[in-house]
Amino acid sequence: MYIFKEREALIKYLEPLRQENTIGFIPTMGALHQGHGTLIEASLKENDITICSVFVNPTQFNKKSDFVKYPQVLSDDILLLEGLKTDILFTPSAEDMYPDGQENMRKYDIGDLEFVLEGEFRPGHFQGVSYIVDEFIQIIKPTNIYMGEKDFQQVAVIKKVLELTQSKTQLVSCPTKRQEDGLAMSSRNMRLTEEGLIKAATLQRALQHIKQGQHEKSFKSLLAEANQMLMDNDFELEHIILCNANTLEILEDFDQDIPMRLVSAAFMEGVRLIDNIAI
Ligand code: AMP
Questions:
Q1: Distance from residue 153's CA to the centre of ligand 1 (Å)
Q2: Arch. (CATH architecture) of 187-274
Q3: What is the tens place of the pLDDT at every residue in 196-251?
Q4: Which residue intervals of the chain bear CATH 3.40.50.620?
Q5: Is the minimum distance from the CB of 276 to ligand 1 under 6 angstroms?
Q6: Which regions of the chain carry the CATH code 3.30.1300.10?
Q7: Ligand 1 mean position to 140 CA, how many Å?
Q8: Atom of ligand 1 nearest to the CA of 29
């Protein structure tokens, strides 16, 4: 595997290869696990060259403490990427990704997507995500970009960014990889104790509880039951929201005529975990 730390070196390396090869790209913040692995495997199957980035993007953290505590284990990441036979790792510095400074970052008109659901609880988050993914796309110009449904709104945001920038890159979204107990794999799980890791699977169970009750009860009463399940397992709920899966518009109650998605975030041992399922 080739490791690039500077954008100019990567651009130069890719230039002569572009004509003859398709490029698959997976942006990550590192602390890689099997969830990232599924995206990388999909790219390896579908492209001639697979590039994975590891970059903990400062502008998408709305809390400095969360940014500082984000796990960074580059040598483990390199082992995982080499094991999968990834072609290229790109791990740039913040200075390289923000040549004009973080405070002068380009902004994107992504409409309501910026402010609804996760956006309401993490102000500025989706502007940071939009900038960094677009910046990577401008450097790499991938044929395909692979993203996980675990970050459901992020997929919608990047679709919008690709549209705004009239990019030729195709977005491929991949299903959420889970542990056997249902817990969505996440780099943040590393910050949990052994006990916290077991209790964390309740978030998925709470979402499933709402899904299974949809024909018998209202969303409101199922939400109260789900919240109780979470509290019994020491979770602190931030939100469980029912929305239109296509427009992300918030729904007050189930509507069987439209595709629905349940999105959620909750704190376990002070760590913010997210999950979502199709209804
Ligand atoms: P992150 O490193 O958390 O920013 O994630 C990088 C990419 O991997 C994003 O597109 C995520 O949605 C995706 N991802 C993270 N966890 C999972 C998972 N458990 N299953 C599938 N994709 C995932």
A1: 12
A2: 2-Layer Sandwich (3.30)
A3: 999 999 999 999 999 999 999 999 999 999 999 999 999 999 999 999 999 999 99
A4: 2-174
A5: no
A6: 187-274
A7: 19
A8: 2
